[in-house]
Amino acid sequence: MKTLPSAIFIMGPTASGKTATAMHLLESGLPVELISVDSALVFKDMDIGTAKPTPAELARAPHHLIDIIDPTAVYSAAQFRLDALALMADITARGKVPVLVGGTMLYFNTLEQGMHDLPVANAELRAQLHQEADLIGWPAMHSKLAALDPITAARLEPNDTQRIERALEVCILSGKAMSAILAEPAREILPYDPLKIALVPSDRAVLHQRIALRFDQMLDGGLFDEVKMLREKYPLNLDLPSMRCVGYRQAWEYLEGEVDLKVCREKGLAATRQLAKRQLTWLRGMNNLHTLDCNATNLTQLAQNLCATHITI
RNA sequence: GGCUCGUUAGCUCAGUUGGUAGAGCAGCGGAUUGAAAAUCCGCGUGUCCUUGGUUCGAUUCCGAGACGAGCCA
After folding, report:
1. pTM assigned to the model
2. Distance from residue A265 (CA) to nucleotide B6 (C1'), in Å?
3. Are A32 and A42 in contact (CB under 8 A)?
């Protein structure tokens, strides 16, 4: 029986020390290459608010899938899966082990579980659906979905705008109900043997302190200037995924004069904590995790030991 | 020192014509298939500052005290 090539996943909430851990693995001499699993780090020129590794860090420890698209562009879990699998194949062919490190749990999930054959997003159709929703409201759009795909409509809340829109889009583009496509058994399996390491805080209050510290460093470090620069350089608006990133949305509102500095900071902190919470929810639902306490002082060493064992086997 | 206003959930405050109270934010839990750092759903017992009085019953009305803010000396 043929054994699958190794891969390493390093997952954890924001500010849990993922980047430091991944860099340590590389610098400790293990034969690895790093792939970022982060829906915000893909954007060029968004450095401060995303806590992107510094140019010096990236020079020492190159990460794939950082700075790959403009802030006006849209990325997706499906695109990530294609990109990551291509990179993983290259890395493995070079005799190395891919280390996937990041906090976008849907991307990890998609990479591992695969996706069904759903139609790609269509901006024109979405614009039409939006127009219609403005007229009749999302609960009415939910009713329309119920006529086309009652199973999907039943599991979606009438206010879950994104999922209702997507389900309608799938029905219209494919001519089939989304639920029918998802019911088909075919699922691609990840052709790798992943060692899944989760960095989880033993005490969430400590993580919240680190989040607060890091957010204040972003404000001091020029987050507002970065957002100003982005708005001058690109035709951006608040509906773009890039400007919905935590910190950017709040900085945008501050620059528009909609909120004062204190409210901007509070909302930014709250959004970051909510993000960490959702990331932890994902981790709780995942199987075969090796969980490490991200507050542990010897975190990087523990991770290195785990990986060394996995790679030699 | 005198006067005025305030004291209710972790925070900011509603409210109870007297029948022991509820919003926003925070916090916690959950969902999640091409936007996911997105989108959405669920969760509220707290000496209603303390103490006396009136009352069948006071967080609510009255008196006294404590603390805070403002104004006047």
Report:
1. 0.91
2. 29
3. no
Residues A13 and A291: their CA atoms lie apart, in Å, by: 12
Residue A115: which of A84, A141, A139, A150 has the closest Cα? A84
Nucleotide nearest to A184 (CA to C1'): B33
Residue-wise pLDDT tens digits, A292-308:
998 888 898 889 989 98
Asked if A69 CB < 7 A from strand B, the reply is: no
Phi, psi values for residue A298, rounded to 5°:
-100, 30
> Å between A158 CA and B42 C1'?
15
* Tokens describing residue A168: 């309608």
Check residue A313 and give its pLDDT.
56
Provide the pLDDT confidence category of residue A288 given band limits of 50, 70 and 90.
very high
Residue A259 has what DSSP assignment? Answer: S
Distance in Å from B61's C1' to A263's CA comes to 40
> How much is the ipTM here?
0.92
Helix H or strand E encompassing A98: strand A97-102
| Per-residue DSSP letter, A312 | H
Helix segments in A201-258, DSSP class H = 204-220, 223-233, 248-255
Average pLDDT over residues A209-229: 92
Q: Please report, for residues A36, A190, A269, the alpha-carbon distance to residue A32 in angstroms, rounded to integers and kept in the order given.
A: 13, 18, 34
* Token pair for A194: 């992943």
How many Å is the Cα radius of gyration of chain A?
21
DSSP A265-301: HHHHHHHHHHHHHHHHHHHHT-SSEEEEETT-TTHHH
